[in-house]
Amino acid sequence: MSTQDTQKKMRIYFTGVGGQGTLTATTLLARTALDAGLDVVAGEVHGMAQRGGVVESVLLLGGWRSPKLDLGEADLLLGFEPLETLRGLSYLRPGGAIFSNSDPLPPLSVSLGQAPYPDLAHIEAKAREVGGHCRFLPCRTLGRQAGSVQSGNTVLLGAVCASGLLPFGPDALAAAIKKYLPSKLHASNLAALELGSSSQ
pLDDT category, 200, cuts 50, 70, 90? Predict the structure, then answer.
């Protein structure tokens, strides 16, 4: 029996804004999965990353042939910014899982007063209408507590790895942090991983 036959297929959709490290988080989770012996396909849509615009990426585990993801197909949505989580709900299959940052990072249109920012309670309610499992965490706040606001994404990854939804756990992510991130980032990201993992 091939590896592909024994692996559970899973489609993960990532969304955030430029400067948050959404693509770094995607790459780190992909490398964690590869080191766990899983078949991995990843794709990125950079968008307006340099200007704080939307950044989207996909990670497919278990033997997919291409990184294509259509509306209503994602098993798991990782939202690194609450408004982008709301906007990305159409990619989640009914009953899929949602892990989202609850700390807003308003886009330029909101900062300039050209558009309103929805209330977090509204975002969470909409998420729960679609998702069978929803977790909202103050990732930027916890990242700052861990030693770096930028490690907030690792808080979210830690929560996902500790949930049992992925075919690997927090220990595998910790090993990937030590292996793939610069040494100067290890302490804050490992602390962020612990905060995310213990938030379940």
Answer: low
CB burial class (10 A; 0-12, 13-18, 19+) of residue 183? exposed
Q: Give percent of the chain above pLDDT 90.
A: 72
Q: From CA 56, how far away is CA 43, in angstroms rounded? A: 9
Contact 127, 78 (CB under 8 A): no
For residue 11, which phi and psi values (nearest 5 degrees)? -115, 125
Kindly give, in sequence order, each residue whose CB lies less than 8 Å from that of residue 50, ignoring residues fewer than 6 positions away.
18
> Which three-class secondary structure string do you get for 49-69?
HHHCCEEEEEEEECCCCCCCC
* Distance between CA atoms of residues 68 and 85, nearest Å: 19
Q: How far apart are CA 88 and CA 82, in angstroms?
A: 10
Average pLDDT, the chain: 89
The pLDDT tens digits of the residues spanning 29-64 come to 999 999 999 999 988 765 555 556 778 999 999 888
Distances (CA, A) of 4 to 63, 67, 73, 110: 5, 16, 19, 45
Confidence of residue 1 (pLDDT cuts 50, 70, 90): very low
- In the chain, the domains with their CATH numbers are 10-198 (3.40.920.10)
- Give the closest residue to 167 by CA, choosing from 41, 8, 1: 8
